[in-house]
Structures are given as C-alpha cells and as structure tokens.
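User: I'm putting together a small comparison set for a docking exercise, and I want a reference complex before I start. The sequence is below, and the ligand is S-adenosylmethionine. Could you produce the 3D structure with the ligand included, as structure tokens?
Assistant: Of course. I'll restate your input first, then give the structure tokens for the complex.
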Amino acid sequence: MNKWFLETSFPGVRRCKRDAFLIKKEIFKGKSRFQDIHIFESPGFGKMLALDGIIQLSQSDEFIYHEVIAHVPLLSHPAPKRFLVVGGGDGGVMREAAKHPLEELYQVEIDSQVVEVAKKHLPFISKGAFSDKRLNLSFTDGKEFIKKYKNFFDVIVVDSTDPVGPGEVLFKGDFYKLVYEALTENGIAIFQLGPFLDFELIVRPTAKKLQKLWKFVNPVRLAMPSYSCGCEYCFMIASKRINPLNIKVSHLARRLKARLGNKACSLKYYTPHMHQASLMMPKLYQI
Ligand code: SAM
C-alpha cells in the first residue's frame, strides 16, 4: 500500500485544494512545545519538511524560495551590515545571507527543535550557516525579540510559518511596527506571505497594513512547485527610503559581483533580471 502525506487544509481559497505527496521514506516525526515536526522523502520532491501538517520546504525547490527572500532585499540595499531573520529554523535563509559580506547576522527562532532536527536530517539546507562566526542565534518569540532593537538592522527577513499557530503574531500590525522601528533609515524588510491564491485574504490586507508604515511596498512573485498546488507564491518587500523598483539591472549585477564574488556561481535561481522580474506584477496582483 502506498503511503501519502495529505497537507493540512488552510483557511481561505486553499481550504478547497489540498496537496498529497507520496511518501517514499519516513525520516522524522515528532512534536515540539510549539508544533508537529515531520520530515519525509517523496519521489518527485526529495526530502520535505512539514510543520503542523503544512509543507515548509522541499529539497527540489527550496533554493528558489531562499535565494529570492534573501538576495532581493540584500541586493536592493546599498550597503547592508546588520541582518536579521525571524523564524527560518531550517537555515535556508541564513545559508544565502551568509554569502554576503555582512558584519553581523542575527536569527530569532521560536522553536529550537526545528533547528536541531533540520541540522540533523536536512543539513543541505543550512550548509553550516548555523556555525557562522557572525551569527547570534536566539530561541524566543520573534515579536518579543525585536522589541529590544531600534534603528539597528539594515535588512530583516521574516521567514515565518503561516498565520496560524506560533506564526500568527508575525502577521499583525503591531509586529510590523516593531519591524519598522528596528530598521535603520535605509532599512528594508521582506515578509513571507503565502500563495497569490489568497490575495484578498492575506496579500492585499498585509499590503495595506505595511503601507501605513513604509513608503515603498511591493509584492515579490515566485513559482513554488511544492507549495499549495504549485501556485504562484508571494513575499512582500517593504522599504523605508529606497524604491526597489528603481534599481537598474546593471546596478544589481555590479552589487552581486562585488559582494558575492565567486559565491554567485552557487546561485541556481537568482539573477539581476529575475530580481526585477520578481517585482513585476500582473494586473490582478497589483496592490
Ligand atoms: N519556508 C517556510 C514556509 O513555507 O512557510 C517557512 C520556513 S521556517 C521553517 C518557519 C519558522 O518560523 C519555523 O521554524 C517556526 O518555528 C518559526 N516561527 C513561527 N512562529 C514564530 C515566532 N513567533 N517567532 C519566531 N519564529 C517563529
């Protein structure tokens, strides 16, 4: 008998569609203080991580998500020095950010077990980023952590779970205000949101909340085959002074070369042209 993983249903349009993945091998199943953690291998997608029944990543396409959420804000910034990830317990965002010549790296993750399990069973995601000497890693709630910082980070990536369970607080107006205050004058933040399928439920309302604080707010669009029936996925970039839409491809290319050098060869998705393309929206997704 084949064994299948049936993704948990989620409020919004996604409740009418559910993904199922054939399980070739069970790797880890456990429960932390905060959530159910499940790692399995699926023939088409490789190793997959699910939290509370919702897919967080697959070995086959995680690089798309992690390259976009890290390099789009970092390369939009003229000279980032201090970088923070909220969530991101699998280590994929930190792996990409660590390729930049940043001075200080910070990460706040609510669930230390996600980090431990990912380091053990999915080491190809963090690729040693958790041992980076620049990294300050804290295990606490992202909202509580960020309250202590004002005018401090150049770039903040919110790589949270969905707005249910421990991630819910990271989708509220008071958290967005704390992120705004924790950023420096040229500061840029990016938030993982969800599929464009939930445009009216999550994407547009989040844009409205962010626009109350930030001057420039823009959706970031990417295709994620392992998420919500393979639909188009949305992050939201929010910038205080720099308009990400006004940065030329040639300028991004110069920054990429100067900052990443040979490490740019490791990128499989990000290019300066894809950077710009990810900020272009079809009419129906304009906020
Ligand atoms: N790529 C992912 C996705 O599909 O949504 C997100 C990746 S990462 C695994 C999400 C992380 O956010 C989890 O490890 C979870 O423990 C963490 N998280 C959830 N709520 C949090 C909070 N309030 N503060 C800090 N981290 C949180």
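The first strand starts at residue 3 and ends at 6. The CA atoms of residues 185 and 240 lie 7 Å apart.
User: Thanks, that's exactly what I needed.
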